Amino acid sequence: MGQYKLLLIILIFSFQSCINAQADNNTSLGQSCSEFGNSSFLSASYKSHLSTLLDSLEKSVTAHNGFYKTSVSNDVYGLIQCRADVSTSNCANCTTNSINIARNECPNSKTATIFARWCFLRYEDKDFTGKELDEGSSMGTSNEELDETAVIAKGETLMGEIARNTSSEPMMYKVGVVDVGSAGKRYGMAECNRDMTRMDCGKCLDGLLTGLWTLLNKRGWEMYTSGCRMWYDDYQFYSNNFVSNPSLVSSAQADPNNIIVSSCAEFGNSTSHPLPDTYKSHVLTLLDNLSKFVTTHNGFYKTSVSNNVYGLIKCRADVYPSNCNSNSFYIALKECPNSKTATIFARWCFLK
Q1: Which domains does the chain carry?
Q2: What is the pTM assigned to this prediction?
Q3: What per-residue confidence (pLDDT) applies to 14?
Q4: What are the two backbone dihedrals, phi and then psi, of residue 16, each rounded to the nearest 5 degrees?
Q5: For the stretch 73-86, what's the b/e string if a residue is b when 16 or more beta carbons lie within 10 angstroms of its beta carbon?
Q6: Fewer CB within 10 Å, N side or C side of the chain?
């Protein structure tokens, strides 16, 4: 397999530069390649299959709501995932940039992992998709300025809550914010690869938090592994195109995706009137499928699971794909956890 050139890099950015930028940008953070010395070690067929794979990832990612995985001839496997809040055009640009980096920096590699702020690219000569991924390839960044002890404690609580709840989100992506008084606010975000199991997502984020003790006292930091990522800063770096907590949607938006009303068929509580575990599992599978496929079906998708639960999602025809896949899944899980039926009315979409 060759020798991995694994990267574990802590990059220190000046706090002043973060203040000046106050914006999210597609910084390329680095790559991990398995190098073979020269191209004679790669077969012509593998090179051809890898080129086909990268072309397919680049062409298909935006049509699949920012996440796409594929393989070529059972020879090379790959995935590309864009951060759930970035626009379609930014997702496409990040994908193109990351693929160019892979081709330029890892030209003789059978495997590569490319870390960027807006997207994550990985390919290998064995099927790694859907599995708890290698934690050896990881990357962290932070700014220089330290926070006060009280602020650090609130920030740790915020990120702990985000880590615990991300796996229950339909796209395994979550953001949050906490008020820290005179020091302003702190914003957090986490995501997992969308083909991971929810259990593996939780384990991956728990592992990140455990390894972040050297960064948690910083005013802003980011941490990336091949299975999950976390971000934390003193300004809202994420976009409102996708906000997993509807209370965080900006009132400044001209057309905000307000949740109008939710209607649930409640069974009291899960202790006295429990839903069968099979039904709960089918509901999660249904919501995952609705979330994954609505944007690839022109804003309307309906499906069922095992003739046990049926659902549909319809987005308003004028909203962007990134806005189409929005808060209704979160509301259904949060507000109707013990329901066999639910209807969610929002300004941008309708879920039942």
Answers
A1: 3-9+18-136 (3.30.430.20), 140-233 (3.30.430.20), 246-351 (3.30.430.20)
A2: 0.64
A3: 32
A4: -65, -40
A5: eebbbbbbbbbbbb
A6: N
